[in-house]
Amino acid sequence: MANNLVWKLCRPTVFRHLASLRSGAEIRHFSSSDPPPENISRYPVPYKKDLPHDIVDLMEEVESKGGFLPNVFKVLSHRPAEFRAFFSYYNELMNKETGGLTKADRELIVVATSLHNKCLYCVVSHSALHRIYSKKPTLSDQVIVNYENAELSARERAMLDFAMAVCRCDTITEQHFQSLEEVGFDREDAWDISAITAFFAMSNRLAHLTDMRPNLEFYNMGRMPRDKNKDKGNVKGE
Amino acid sequence: MANNLVWKLCRPTVFRHLASLRSGAEIRHFSSSDPPPENISRYPVPYKKDLPHDIVDLMEEVESKGGFLPNVFKVLSHRPAEFRAFFSYYNELMNKETGGLTKADRELIVVATSLHNKCLYCVVSHSALHRIYSKKPTLSDQVIVNYENAELSARERAMLDFAMAVCRCDTITEQHFQSLEEVGFDREDAWDISAITAFFAMSNRLAHLTDMRPNLEFYNMGRMPRDKNKDKGNVKGE
Amino acid sequence: MANNLVWKLCRPTVFRHLASLRSGAEIRHFSSSDPPPENISRYPVPYKKDLPHDIVDLMEEVESKGGFLPNVFKVLSHRPAEFRAFFSYYNELMNKETGGLTKADRELIVVATSLHNKCLYCVVSHSALHRIYSKKPTLSDQVIVNYENAELSARERAMLDFAMAVCRCDTITEQHFQSLEEVGFDREDAWDISAITAFFAMSNRLAHLTDMRPNLEFYNMGRMPRDKNKDKGNVKGE
Amino acid sequence: MANNLVWKLCRPTVFRHLASLRSGAEIRHFSSSDPPPENISRYPVPYKKDLPHDIVDLMEEVESKGGFLPNVFKVLSHRPAEFRAFFSYYNELMNKETGGLTKADRELIVVATSLHNKCLYCVVSHSALHRIYSKKPTLSDQVIVNYENAELSARERAMLDFAMAVCRCDTITEQHFQSLEEVGFDREDAWDISAITAFFAMSNRLAHLTDMRPNLEFYNMGRMPRDKNKDKGNVKGE
Amino acid sequence: MANNLVWKLCRPTVFRHLASLRSGAEIRHFSSSDPPPENISRYPVPYKKDLPHDIVDLMEEVESKGGFLPNVFKVLSHRPAEFRAFFSYYNELMNKETGGLTKADRELIVVATSLHNKCLYCVVSHSALHRIYSKKPTLSDQVIVNYENAELSARERAMLDFAMAVCRCDTITEQHFQSLEEVGFDREDAWDISAITAFFAMSNRLAHLTDMRPNLEFYNMGRMPRDKNKDKGNVKGE
Amino acid sequence: MANNLVWKLCRPTVFRHLASLRSGAEIRHFSSSDPPPENISRYPVPYKKDLPHDIVDLMEEVESKGGFLPNVFKVLSHRPAEFRAFFSYYNELMNKETGGLTKADRELIVVATSLHNKCLYCVVSHSALHRIYSKKPTLSDQVIVNYENAELSARERAMLDFAMAVCRCDTITEQHFQSLEEVGFDREDAWDISAITAFFAMSNRLAHLTDMRPNLEFYNMGRMPRDKNKDKGNVKGE
Predict the structure, then answer these.
(1) Does C123 touch chain D (CB under 8 A)?
(2) How distant, in Å, are the alpha carbons of B131, E48, E56, E78 from that of E31?
(3) Residue F33: which residues within 8 A CB-CB, separation 6 or more?
(4) Which of E198, E219, E220 has the alpha carbon at shortest distance from E94?
(5) Chain A within 8 Å of F148 (Cβ-Cβ)?
(6) pLDDT tens, E177-224?
(7) Most buried residue, D83, E227, F81, F128, by CB count within 10 Å?
(8) What ipTM did this prediction achieve?
(9) F226 touches chain B (CB under 8 A)
(10) Cα separation, B126 vs B219, whole angstroms
(11) PANTHER family, from UniProt (chains A, B, C, D, E, F) (predicted)?
(12) How close, in Å, is residue C158 to chain B by CA atoms?
């Protein structure tokens, strides 16, 4: 199946971390028999039973791994063909295993881009992912207010300066690439930074269109230091 | 093959018109034995022989139908996996056969969006496509300077007003949808308008990154009224 | 003593809530024998022993009630006379017991204003206070990204629209007051909204000057629902 | 009395110059028996008889020294507690006797800040004070139009560049401080410049709220060179 | 002579008022034997003896009528042919005897336009002319800070709203003309308003190029109420 | 006759090139007996028979040389006196035979300025003139989208950087002149660049006022390489 194969490209490692953090009690399960929640999109959210199998399969894999299904999957399933293209592209950019960007770097770019574009869904969800990947529970909050005086390394600052130049549609010059090279990024990293910023230029605007609302889980995810004693028993506090 | 199947989704009717207009003499063929042109991207453009078969197949189909290969295919083939996601998404949005938007409408949205984002490649190439689809050889030039006083219908103006709101990341409200409904667009059309604007928010930024240059063919395409006498023989003059 | 009397005007109820929430283990005590932390201001932070008694008294009262001393007290004590004027003014505006604004309303105005002015300290600290007063743990995060699509009441939205007009130095007209009156605010409330926005126009700029850093406590304060069982014993989990 | 003591802090030398310049015939006396003028504020202006004694005392001292009572005193007396905080703070910043800023420097900062914020009251009144302190009758008019090509010293220009960075909420960096140091300002001067700009960020917004109108006296004050011969007889030319 | 005839079109009534107001002692005569002042332009200012006769004739007529020669004549005489075109155009727009705009209206448009364009020369000189024509000595100062809350009539406000729309290159619509018609301006008045704003869009930029400095006389001109007793004798005090 | 003499100053070489390119069949003649076209201006366009002789003479000379009469002549003839001043000034700036700017340079400045000001008429007509003078059929299209990444020489780029600084009313400094000098422009060239940008700051605003529409001929003029064989017979294809 074509769609199946498309989805084989997806390696949603993004969601693996979430799974280990989830608290069963706090998660609203979204099953095929439930009516879809109505307040997460301006557009109708399809019932699972009405969605193509490949999309349901992906949703269930994501939910199973991450503990809950991020609303972007529900909201964009209103257009299955676009859903496939969107997540295929997303997967290429955000789950790439090569290059100089860490997962935390990628999320930081998304946070800065999405704040610039005033996108509630993406800021809230990707600042959560940044907190988890970076293990820095306050840095994304700083970047949200003003990345220019956040507690960034020189490398992170150059990365966000470049991302913001792309975000604003500045004309990119050799000077921009040199600023990246001074902190150790090569031209392929520059492409990665730009492609992420560019993809979220799209994603942020789709969220504005649909008035996409973030899952409540995202707001607090990754804020608390993990309590090792608690981890032996039930996971709590997230 | 997965990729093959992905590409079956592509119905590049975009390029069919171009084919009927092409003048053999004016087209620079890009064959697998030629060195890739160096001045169309800041990043290396792969030789065809080094590209995956599905990408070469798509390129050859596009070139065969349209008479020349738009540079965006060459430039983005630097990243084959992203290339596939990009054109799969593009195809869904621009070659969709349903909904209230004509092909000319879609191109007009791209022109207005891309001018806002100062994207040379997309303005030049999609204003060419708009001229062909709309058979209005001067309207895109007007929109490029100032869509607010271009010779647009009320419907086109409302469409571009909505697209520009999305382009600027304005917070979208019911008022925006009502303005569309007053000229006959429904909410699915609103999604189409937004998704196109959003996709080119991404595409324009990739073009800035790569300093993507438009094919010379695009600049004059669709400017001249077709000469019926000439059409009996060879197509020329474009 | 004059200064004493000035401070009698201060009724730092702001800090009372904090006290009931504090977790002893999480609080870094700031005693007169400790060296002042160096990374909270670009300017020297005085030792308590070098500060005037009235300022030390106020600091100790605030710390005693709130569980920790917000860094703004330490940073601004570099200039004792300005410190007195600043907190005297702050107290008048934020701890006022009359008028139509709730404490949560006041904090929401500060959050929106301070985000507009890109002030890290004030966004982080006052979004904490908003979470506590409003018992809405996610609303300030929404306002930080984009107050226009946050889950605000019509009354809150009109309040922030007015505050933002003042924040941007728009020329204020009767139309602005009418928009407030439609949701139940009178002209004295309009003064309160404006005076808070205006005061933080000042405060935000002082924070930029000093590169004032928020206490770590603020980032997570008020995010977690209170655990009723725990409340019977010691307050924890904040 | 606390309030009395607060006001002892005030040394309104600002107004001393005004007194020496006043022409009895031109001054509209504001006595406790007169009705307050209605066109200087959008909010009610209290009768003196209804104001607290400490505020009346201050007003009378200012009027006695300066020859007329600036409208800001009347307008802000609508809120006596805020009035006290406002003028206590103002006094600390503008009448400070130490540091590298002259009185003319302070007023120039206020003029540039207030023009940026489009504040009629503060531009008109503080350009008057600048003319008096600086004895340069045209410089403030130049700064009002465009401080970048006004006839400023390098020191004044660096001072206003820094003030404008604070005024715009730019992120302040070491580079900003270095630019000040190159013309002889130290970090305490930087604080002074910023605090004045920050205070008028507040003051300008209160003037917008109240639609505060400048006293007519301010418009021409300090424009004419003093004619010593004339001073012996009637005061003229002001 | 052609040039002579061109200048016959000039009816420099602008300068007539100045003449009646001038104080001999305050005027720096600019005679053909003097070296030209060096600080009024970034470009060389020609000696009168090196200028064409028609330009010298115009300068002398203007100086004779107005009491001093505005620096714009000296600065632009660097390019005699452009000088002629500039003042011929200026004369058509500013000295026109027909239509709904008073001379004070025209000057008010120039002040608002020139402030928007940050043009020192034109703001200072035309606010002087506005004071004289309008006999309102403070209105232009108000417009300079913020025309939106200046003490304007509804007619003046609509006039400046239209001028500012033209000044910003907004797309002009029927709505703009209707707003003018509501206060009594017809379409020919709209042309006059626009043409003045457009001409000073040019003039302001030439002043920026040349760093044109206003004559000192302009700063205080028209600020003082005329003293009727003095008027019987010599005109002074302006 | 004065007017006649004014027009002797005009050497409309601008239009000479157009003449050699015109295709008789494509030109809509505008004769004195025809009704004026109604869709080229928001204001009435006079009949030739109602216009002063000198204006008709100029129009006929321009039409005779260029093959058609650019609409700006028709639209501005609504105000004959302003028409004379406008074209006299235009002629000085655009047809000047001395200095470092080529005709193509001048047109490029106009294109960049007019796009900045969103002026349809001037962008379309002067990009046509640029194509003819420069023999570069695509450069103006690039400048229209984004002059920063157009295929400009360093000299052209510095020229447009300076023009844009003037266009935006930036404060012009010695640094600006040095940037020009580095690519070979002297101060008189700087004046020329500025004066052209300034003149079109005016012209663009008049076009906005009148909703001036470009002649259809301009859109395609100069896009096609001249076919020498065809030139022997009829001129076609433009």
Answers:
(1) no
(2) 63, 8, 10, 17
(3) none
(4) E198
(5) yes
(6) 999 999 999 999 999 999 999 999 999 999 999 999 999 999 999 998
(7) F128
(8) 0.84
(9) no
(10) 10
(11) CARBOXYMUCONOLACTONE DECARBOXYLASE-LIKE DOMAIN-CONTAINING PROTEIN, SI:CH211-175M2.5
(12) 16
Ramachandran area for residue B184 (φ above 0: left; ψ -120 to 50: alpha; else beta): left
Six token digits for residue D62? 């200012």
User: Hey, CA dihedral for F93, F96, F100, F105, is it positive or negative?
Assistant: positive
Q: Does D109 touch chain C (CB under 8 A)?
A: no
Please indicate if any CB of chain C lies within 8 Å of the CB of A237.
yes
Short-list C140, C218, C138, C217, CA closest to A220: C138
Q: Please state, in angstroms and rounded to a whole number, the distance separating the CA atoms of residues B215 and B212.
A: 10
- CA–CA separation, F84 and F91 (whole Å): 11
> What is the least distance, in Å, from the CA of F138 to any CA of chain B?
7
Neighbours of chain F (3+ CB pairs under 8 A): A, B, D, E
**C148: chain B residues, CB-CB within 8 Å:** 171
Across the range D9-33, mean pLDDT stands at 37
Q: Which of B123-127, C18-22, E159-163, F48-52 is least confident? A: C18-22
Report yes or no on chains B and F touching (3+ CB pairs under 8 A).
yes
Give the up-direction half-sphere exposure of residue A40: CA atoms within 13 A in the CB hemisphere: 20
How crowded is residue C168: how many other Cβ atoms within 10 Å of its Cβ?
A: 12
* DSSP 8-state assignment for residue D223: -
Minimum distance, in Å, between the CA of residue F12 and any CA atom of chain D: 38
Q: What mean pLDDT is reported for chain D?
A: 85
Mutation target for E interface from B148, B152, B160: give the one with most E CBs within 10 A. Answer: B148
Going by pLDDT thresholds of 50, 70 and 90, the confidence category of residue B12 is: very low
Dist CA C30 CA C25 (whole Å): 14
Number of helices and strands (H, E) in chain C? 13, 0
Instruction: Report the distance separating Cα E188 and Cα B136, nearest Å.
Output: 34
Asked if residues F3 and F84 have their Cβ atoms less than 8 Å apart, the reply is: yes
* pLDDT digits 0-9 by tens, C94-131: 998 899 999 999 999 999 999 999 999 999 999 999 99
Q: How many CB atoms lie within 10 A of CB E107?
A: 25
CA distance A238 to D32: 64
Q: Which of D39, D120, D143 to mutate to test the interface with E (most CBs of E within 10 A)?
A: D120
Other residues' Cβ atoms within 10 Å of the Cβ of residue F228? 7
Rounded Cα gap, residues C73 and C79, in angstroms: 11
Whether residue B28 has pLDDT greater than 90: no
Please check whether residue F178 touches A, CB under 8 A: no
> pLDDT by residue (tens digit) across C188-198?
999 999 999 99
At F17, the pLDDT band (50, 70, 90 cuts) reads very low
- Would you state the structure tokens that stand for residue F95, as one six-digit string? 């047809």
CA distance, residue D188 to nearest chain E CA (Å)? 31
Cβ contact A80:A167 at 8 Å: no
Residues of D within 8 A of E138 (CB-CB) are 216, 219
Structural contact between residues B99 and B111, judged by C-beta atoms closer than 8 angstroms: no
B149 near C CB under 8 A: no
From E112's Cα to the closest Cα of chain D, the distance in A is: 11
pLDDT above 70 covers a percentage of chain F that reads 78
The whole model's pTM is what? 0.87
Q: Which of A166, A170, A171, A174 to mutate to test the interface with F (most CBs of F within 10 A)?
A: A171
The average confidence (pLDDT) of chain F is 85
Report the chain A residue with the minimal C-alpha distance to residue C227.
A237
Return the pLDDT at D23. Answer: 33
Chain F residues with CB-CB distance to A168 below 8 A: none
Structure-token match 């600049």, residue found:
B219
Q: Is F175 on the interface with D (CB under 8 A)?
A: no
